[in-house]
Design goal:
This protein is mainly beta and 214 residues long. 7% of the residues lie in helices and 43% in strands. The model has no long low-confidence stretch (mean pLDDT 89).
Length: 214
């Protein structure tokens, strides 16, 4: 089967067209990547702005233009700029997910002088993570200020389709944490240890939202 990234996870779809339903589904939606793998080896097709893929046997294709005439008669006309990449890997989707993020949202680097920011650049640590995760199977998608001003919201998801227990270490002050829903309404508290950080157990493809309290 081929695997296609969707929001907060991925779907596996067949590489053949044995049924009428599969024959009609000549193209499917995906976000940053589509992957064709076997045991121990795979190839992923990554891109930064195209969302139509199809697979037939061992061929994986990316749709670049549609150009329909309705409802917009000028749709897709003009100059297009996009980036795509092929990534060979050992069958593990972890590097594919990381490469998809790196291609679609590359790291922005800013230089800072001695007087920039609180304390100046000279007092900043040589290495710092806003949010560190002990297991690459859990992806931190969002770190933001809470809408109501109470702490920091961290949203992430289990990306590989399995249960896992991992350690989340905030790089911001954190004396407590609670799970919230997508509207940031508080739920169950989460245990926070000053040294170990936050220990979480998640289900396959589970989406987790936490409120970190200063």
């Amino acid at each position: 089967a081929a695997r296609f990234e969707i929001q907060f996870g991925h779907l596996a779809r067949p590489t053949h067209a044995n049924t009428a339903f599969e024959q009609a589904r000549f193209e499917v939606c995906a976000q940053r990547w589509a992957d064709l793998s076997e045991a121990g080896y795979g190839v992923a097709l990554l891109n930064d702005c195209k969302y139509g893929y199809d697979v037939a046997g061992h061929t994986l294709r990316l749709s670049l233009l549609r150009a329909p005439t309705a409802p917009d008669p000028l749709c897709d006309r003009g100059r297009h700029r996009f980036t795509y990449a092929l990534l060979a890997h050992d069958g593990d989707l972890g590097p594919v997910i990381a490469a998809g993020y790196a291609l679609g949202a590359p790291l922005a680097v800013r230089s800072a002088g001695p007087g920039d920011g609180a304390g100046g650049a000279a007092t900043r640590p040589p290495e710092h993570a806003v949010m560190a995760v002990s297991d690459p199977g859990f992806v931190v998608e969002t770190v933001k200020a809470a809408d109501d001003g109470r702490g920091v919201i961290v949203r992430g998801y289990e990306a590989l389709g399995g249960r896992r227990r991992f350690q989340l270490r905030p790089g911001v002050p954190c004396t407590g944490a609670v799970r919230t829903d997508l509207l940031e309404r508080d739920g169950e508290p989460v245990e926070v240890d000053e040294e170990a950080g936050i220990m979480l157990t998640v289900r396959p493809f589970e989406l987790v939202t936490l409120r970190l309290l200063p």
